[in-house]
Write a structure and sequence with these properties.
2 domains; two-stranded antiparallel sheet; about 300 residues; 8 helices; single chain
């Protein structure tokens, strides 16, 4: 379904739909992600250079939709996201560390110990990654899996809560389309087409438009098309989170997400919600400043065994 905005002499918007083009549009959007990734891999621009990144088709098009209705669809506050959820963070305790249960400070990121790239940040960047879920068991399992804990490892886990000074910071939720297939996302636009086709006939007859089977006017159509585009883009980004990472490819595969993080920072946002790639019942959040959430409560300290999952 291809949507084209046309303007008449009164600057009214008309839309032309082509059912045969919807899947094709998805493929083009997916292709632009690959081009975005390849441009970063080929060093055409650095992940921090959002000015150049914004000229690449994928981010350029995403930005055009995001600046419209996207902020209403993708944005929440930290307190809203954490409400009713369990939040926590785990860490592998190294053999040389104290045998005593670690303090809360041990769960805060420190640059000298961040020696590898993370999904949204390169080595050395002190952003706070947390597991979020409906139960304590889910987030602890998520933390274990995200840390790639092996049998015999000493593992510690601690719960987190919002820092009272940062309840209303704005977070981008890239997981909004995770419960939908591409077909589900398309169905909404197909239903819109049928509804507006019928309305278009009435409008065309009233205004003497002969090719009424193609043209119609409705101020809500552009918003619905933008919503479809945003959900499709979110689905593409989320699906690529789940692409297996090979050690030698980590910098290349993570570069698009690190660029997105810098883009969202530029736009005034403070973190990103995304689905866990290793624990289907949990989500992860990365906060661009580690002070936005704080550890609390007792620390769990145990040796990981094969029955822990």
């Amino acid at each position: 379904m291809k949507a084209i905005i046309k303007k008449n002499k009164l600057s009214e918007s008309f839309f032309v739909f082509d059912d045969q083009q919807l899947e094709h549009s998805e493929e083009i959007m997916k292709k632009t992600w690959s081009e975005f990734r390849e441009a970063l891999a080929n060093k055409e621009f650095e992940y921090t250079d959002t000015d150049k990144a914004s000229k690449v088709t994928f981010l350029k098009q995403f930005d055009s939709w995001f600046q419209g209705v996207g902020k209403g669809e993708l944005v929440t506050t930290l307190s809203e996201f954490f409400c009713g959820k369990f939040v926590g963070r785990g860490t592998i305790i190294k053999p040389h560390e104290s045998p005593n249960t670690p303090s809360h400070d041990r769960f805060m990121p420190v640059s000298e110990f961040i020696t590898e790239d993370n999904r949204f940040s390169p080595a050395g960047v002190e952003w706070l990654y947390l597991a979020v879920g409906d139960t304590q068991e889910i987030i602890q399992e998520c933390a274990e899996k995200e840390c790639r804990v092996k049998s015999g490892d000493r593992f510690a886990f601690c719960n987190f809560q919002v820092n009272e000074n940062y309840h209303n910071i704005k977070i981008v939720n890239l997981s909004i389309a995770d419960d939908f297939s591409y077909e589900n996302i398309n169905e909404g636009l197909y239903a819109l087409e049928q509804r507006e086709y019928e309305n278009g006939i009435k409008y065309a007859q009233k205004h003497g438009i002969l090719d009424y089977k193609l043209h119609y006017k409705n101020p809500q159509v552009e918003k619905e098309i933008a919503k479809w585009a945003l959900y499709t883009y979110a689905k593409i980004m989320s699906n690529n989170l789940f692409v297996p990472i090979k050690t030698q490819d980590k910098k290349i595969e993570y570069a698009p997400f690190q660029t997105l993080a810098i883009y969202f920072i530029r736009e005034g946002f403070d973190g990103i919600i995304y689905s866990s790639t290793v624990c289907p019942n949990a989500k992860n959040i990365v906060l661009f400043d580690k002070k936005y959430a704080v550890p609390f409560g007792n620390v769990s300290d145990y040796t990981f065994g094969p029955l822990s999952f």
